[in-house]
Amino acid sequence: MATITKFEDISAWEKSRELSKEIYSVVNKNKEFNSNKALTWHIMKTAGSIMDNIAEGYERGGNKEFIQFLAIAKGSTAELRSQLYRAFDMELIFDTKQSELNNIAIEISKIINGLIKYLKSSDKKGYKFK
Known about the structure:
single chain; mainly alpha; de novo design (two linked rop proteins); 5 helices; about 80% helix
């Protein structure tokens, strides 16, 4: 894995940014979805939380804190998948779109897991320790 010089270099952050934009698009194009204000707010907040936690963890400058925030981001991917199933069960999102978004969230989770493993095995403690 190459050295990460900024959080934009992290593929999990890039993918979560794309997922957040897609969630926003799905919610705003569907009047029925948008009428459920609580779920709309929560699903958009959760999607944004994934990328936000990756960025915040990176910016803290140490691997231990980064790992902690990556774990939170990974948890948010599971929360988002649960919300997508709820939206599907409420017939606010179709099976194909729910499945597509769910698969992206799973992919992000796997990337985050790999990054956590990498950071745990790295001799470097983070850029704030240079």
